[in-house]
Design goal:
Layout (H helix, E strand, L loop, with lengths): L2 H4 L2 E7 L16 E2 L2 E2 H10 L4 E8 L17 E5 L4 H12 L8 E4 L9 H13 L4 E7 L4 E5 L2 E6 L5 E10 H14 L6 H7 L4 E5 L10 H16 L1
């Protein structure tokens, strides 16, 4: 495969969720940090990666916030209406990508509300995945806390954390492989919360590339303060 095709990559950002755990009328991806929506930070990071040729954002059907973003008119940013679940939105975006991408192109799926990811970590993930024999890979961090399995508010057992990692995004796979995996789990009625889970059900392997603990996902109100501090620190580096 020619080098330019082997290196070609696209990004998908599922942004159709409402973020109810934030307790806000505004979807969490549009909440401001220092006057800029979270989603704007996320898109800036992806667009700063030279190998990413374009980004597809899956939006909610009634999204009135998207047109207010400056990057909404960026020539390398495209939109599609997402679905009820994350997997539905990613599938919709993959279908839209068929207009631009080849089946063997790489695609990175990244959370809309994960604005603190570093460009260097995205590039490192791409390099590691391309250099491996795996079907793809993801950023993740080793679990440091003691993990309890809880049933109805009671601890049922303590898990061995030595082999536990916390999955992050981006997660990277080839376009056709990911689309096939998502269609298969959907047809089987299997609920998945990330792309690697869908690939696992099909027997595909994924490598783990250690990320940074500050690649946080903004889920609750207190995460906004932490994300603000991280982004300010990044600007000062």
């Amino acid at each position: 495969m020619p080098e330019d095709l082997a290196r070609r990559c696209w990004a998908i950002v599922p942004a159709a969720g409402s973020g109810t755990r934030m307790g806000s009328d505004t979807p969490k991806q549009y909440l401001p940090i220092d006057g800029k929506p979270i989603l704007a930070y996320t898109l800036e990071k992806l667009l700063a990666v030279p190998d990413i040729k374009g980004v597809v954002v899956a939006l909610g059907p009634d999204d009135a916030h998207w047109p207010t973003l400056a990057l909404a008119s960026h020539p390398n940013v495209h939109t599609v209406i997402g679905g009820a679940e994350r997997a539905d939105s990613v599938l919709q975006a993959l279908q839209a990508l068929q207009l631009f991408a080849g089946p063997d192109d790489w695609v990175l799926v990244h959370d809309a509300a994960r604005p603190c990811v570093r460009v260097t970590d995205i590039e490192r993930l791409l390099h590691k995945v391309r250099a491996s024999d795996a079907a793809g890979g993801l950023l993740a961090t080793p679990v440091n806390d003691t993990i309890k399995q809880v049933n109805d508010g009671w601890v049922s057992r303590t898990l061995d954390r030595s082999q536990l990692w916390a999955a992050q995004t981006p997660q990277c796979f080839r376009c056709q492989d990911l689309a096939r995996a998502l269609r298969e789990v959907k047809a089987s009625g299997i609920a998945v919360t990330d792309e690697t889970s869908a690939m696992e059900h099909g027997g595909a392997s994924a490598i783990v590339v250690e990320g940074r603990a500050d690649n946080i996902k903004v889920t609750r109100q207190e995460d906004l303060v932490l994300a603000q501090a991280i982004l300010r620190h990044q600007r000062e580096e």
